[in-house]
Amino acid sequence: MQEITKLTIAEALQGLKNKNFTAVELTEAYLKNMAQGKKYNAYITECADVALAQAKIADQNYAVGKARALEGIPLGIKDLFCTKNIRTTAASHILDNFVPPYESTVTQHLLDDGVVFLGKLNLDEFAMGGSNETSYFGPVINPWSKDKLLVPGGSSGGSAAAVAAHLCAGSTGTDTGGSIREPAAFCGVTGIKPTYGRCSRYGIVAFASSLDQAGPIAQDVRDCAVLLNSMAGFDEKDSTSCNLPVPDYTSFLEQDIKGLVIGLPKEYRPNGLNTEIAAYWDKAAEMLKARGAIIKEISLPHTKYALATYYVLAPAEASSNLARYDGIRYGYRAKAEGEHLDELYIRTRTEGFGKEVKRRIMIGTYVLSAGYYDAYYLKAQKMRRLIRDDFMEAFKQCDIILTPTSPITAFPIGDESMLQNPINMYLNDVFTVSVNLAGLPAMSLPIGLAQNGLPLGMQLIGKPFDEGTIFKTAAAIEADAKFERI
User: Which of 104, 131, 135, 155 is catalytic?
Assistant: First the structure.
């Protein structure tokens, strides 16, 4: 392990400014870690030549006093973001040779601020999964694994594992139902899903367009603030992007939380909730109370319908979005095309998509079909509004909501209970999916270790476009928790 790679982004930026090391030296240290850390399978595509070329430009900018906000910081990019002239696969066979001719808006923002791209990070295929086991390129290994190989969480498993194992200084992720927050919790790092519309979706391979949102994963709260400063912003190429000013999120980190009202939803404490997770939840609330915050029980009565609602709407949107992969325009094309166009479609999609993606396409097509549209899709849309209304009502009584991120810690790769019954995997999203349905910002940060020695995460849910309150509350928890990363 290169010691220089244990620095946070904020510390690395200071080191570069002070000329303690160069951007090339920093990049080479991460590339060395990547070579030694191939066992984690965190990267799908490594781009050392691109990274070193970008690092040399960064050093030139430092030399002439023209360093940009993130000059020379080596990042990993989730392989769902289109990167110009760099292979983008979405961890699927159907896109395993796709090289985009354009850059996603989020990654362009990062490039404009001087970051170095180390490579493209592994994920669940098309971001569909909660364990990073659905990737065509094989599962990512959680760096906290000891006796058994553990999942890193999904879908941004490569993004979280790479940060935890110091294979990049920070990473991009996407979150459709918990895909930034759950991996962050499982890998003992920090990640934030901003408000829907805060970061542009342009150039991100779509899963469920009304739910997908980009965000950063990093070592700590400050690094997430630094990265989100760069990633966020209005984009006219994305019709769902909100034209609102982006505050400097680092300015919130030192703010006092005295008088802040913290809501604890009673529905998130069901019978059978893991006692360790419940204890850490209480501990986090006590930390905030000790700093002058007010703890208040709130109610989110439609929480019990969130998972069912999500697993109707997300597959419905996925079945529509993935219809474009037909073997005609780009991506994988079946070698045996058949006599008719329909046969080409069927063979290409049968060979190109994995099991979980096919499962969700079929569910989505079913709930959108004639005779079932009203019974499932329309009803789920109505329930989505009620779930959002719950949050808006709760925020009349509190400033921010504190919950666990996941009901479990990282589990072994190949866990039969998860693989044999996909519903068990879906249940892991119970604390996260309602946030996406409501379009709210939420962060996961590590709070401590369970008795099995694995990290546990706490989730902070904020009001729309109020990421600042999340950052100042998270900074307080982080300071008191003193979580020790790998």
Answer: 155
